């Protein structure tokens, strides 16, 4: 673990948490319906032509402290259309709450970040929202959001009238963003780790090489960067193997680097996965031998083992505690972004003991697609 830069000249020192994650998609209404119906999110605000925004439609979805925005373009000239044409639906903007959007932007640019949006303001009767953004891997960007002088709901241009009703279904109970994972091209992991360390002021939390994350057929390298508090972002690159790794499949299919998965934390994963399965969410499945092995190794843990096996929930243990996790199938037509559900019982890791089982599950799906 490396130290976090504490100087106020670093962007990391000004980040106070996640603000939101914005997806650019082909059909925002359909994606909002999917995320509410399948994952239990609520649509809490809308922006579009009816609210004075003529060229795009956006839905704000919330659950616990998680905020997702799904946005689609409304004209063929839209940059959103171009993005979706190349990448398919994907996470475009990882936004952070900051104490000063201008100072954070200037700190990032001064340390070598690529500018995307110079500091600007959005205003309405509820005040002033200040924003800026810089580029990161691929076409992904980080937006810095200063909410000190804005007292409205989320953002100017969004309204809370006439929203769709909350879909019927059992409560899921997702409470927060645990981490967000990015995939980068082979040979560029160290470059992007250096970006987060040297430019953003993040530190390294953990690092894994191809000897730790591999199967008979494929492997990857991964480094976890964080701001020292609540923003955690693992970065992956493919490593050489007998066949195409899941990371290389993502790079090929997404047409470049991007966000691989979002991990949402819950306080009761048995309830969460039960509800998600009831709502129709499909998960990657471990083979039967996994549960025999994990109960032999970790049976000393006081866990609802029968429920975990019935629901397919994976278990890992570290010196500081345990964690429970499960991964969905890709949530778009392309085999790119997926969702992880995680419950932490003290462990700060990422399920290293489950890497092999997860990889084998993904490889079975790759083989079905003809991409292994």
Task: Walk me through the structure.
- The structure is a single chain.
- Helices cover 25% and strands 34% of the residues.
- The chain has 372 residues and is of the alpha+beta class.
- The protein folds into 2 domains: 11-146, 2,3-Dihydroxybiphenyl 1,2-Dioxygenase, domain 1, CATH 3.10.180.10; 174-369, 2,3-Dihydroxybiphenyl 1,2-Dioxygenase, domain 1 (Roll), CATH 3.10.180.
- The strands form 2 sheets. The chain has an 8-stranded mixed β-sheet with strand order 2-3-4-1-5-8-7-6. Strands 10-11-12-9-13-16-15-14 form an 8-stranded mixed β-sheet, sandwiched between helices.
- The longest helix has 15 residues, at 355-369.
- The mean pLDDT is 90.
Number of helices: 9
User: Which shape, going by the Cα principal axes?
Assistant: globular
Helical amount among residues, as a percent range? 25-40%
CATH fold assignment of the largest domain? 2,3-Dihydroxybiphenyl 1,2-Dioxygenase, domain 1
Counting structural domains, the number is 2
Strand content: 25-35%
Distance between the termini: 33 Å
Using the 3D structure, state the CATH architecture of the largest domain.
Roll
Specify the oligomeric state.
Answer: single chain
Query: Strand count, sense and closure of the main sheet?
Result: 8 strands, mixed
Class of the largest domain in CATH? Alpha Beta
Round the mean pLDDT to the nearest integer and report it.
Answer: 90
State the order of secondary-structure elements, H for helix, E for strand.
Answer: EHEEEHEHEEEEHEEEHEHHHEEEH
Number of strands: 16
The SS-based structural class is alpha+beta
Instruction: Catalogue the unreliable spans.
Output: none
Return Rg in Å.
Answer: 20 Å
What is the name of the CATH superfamily of the largest domain? 2,3-Dihydroxybiphenyl 1,2-Dioxygenase, domain 1
Side-by-side strand order of the widest sheet: 2-3-4-1-5-8-7-6
């Amino acid at each position: 673990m490396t130290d976090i830069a504490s100087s106020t000249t670093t962007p990391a020192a000004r980040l106070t948490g996640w603000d939101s994650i914005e997806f650019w998609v082909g059909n925002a209404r359909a994606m909002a319906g999917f995320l509410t119906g399948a994952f239990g999110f609520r649509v809490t605000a809308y922006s579009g032509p009816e609210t004075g925004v003529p060229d795009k439609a956006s839905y704000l979805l919330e659950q616990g402290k998680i905020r997702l925005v799904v946005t689609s373009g409304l004209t063929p000239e839209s940059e959103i259309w171009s993005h979706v044409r190349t990448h398919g639906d994907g996470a475009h903007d990882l936004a952070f709450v900051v104490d000063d959007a201008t100072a954070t932007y200037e700190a990032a640019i001064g340390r070598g970040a690529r500018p995307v949006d110079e500091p600007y303001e959005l205003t309405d009767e509820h005040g002033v929202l200040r924003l800026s953004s810089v580029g990161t891997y691929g076409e992904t960007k980080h937006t810095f959001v200063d909410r000190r002088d804005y007292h409205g709901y989320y953002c100017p241009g969004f309204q809370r009238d006439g929203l769709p009703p909350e879909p019927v279904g059992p409560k899921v109970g997702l409470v927060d963003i645990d981490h967000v994972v990015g995939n980068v091209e082979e040979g560029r992991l160290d470059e992007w780790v250096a970006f987060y360390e040297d430019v953003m002021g993040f530190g390294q939390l953990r690092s894994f090489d191809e000897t730790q994350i591999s199967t008979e057929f494929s492997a990857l390298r991964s480094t976890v960067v964080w701001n020292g508090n609540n923003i955690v972002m693992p970065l992956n690159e493919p490593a050489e193997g007998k066949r195409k790794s899941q990371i290389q499949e993502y790079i090929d299919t997404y047409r470049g680097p991007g966000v691989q998965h979002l991990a949402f934390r819950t306080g009761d994963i048995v309830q969460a996965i039960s509800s998600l399965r009831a709502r129709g969410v499909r998960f990657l499945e471990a083979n039967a031998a996994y549960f025999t092995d994990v109960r032999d190794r970790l049976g000393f843990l006081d866990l609802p083992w029968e429920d975990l096996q019935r629901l397919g929930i994976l278990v890992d243990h570290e010196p500081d505690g345990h964690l429970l996790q499960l991964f969905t199938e890709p949530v778009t037509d392309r085999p790119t972004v997926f969702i992880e559900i995680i419950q932490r019982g003290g462990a700060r890791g990422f399920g290293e003991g489950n890497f092999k089982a997860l990889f084998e599950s993904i490889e079975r799906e790759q083989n079905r697609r003809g991409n292994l």
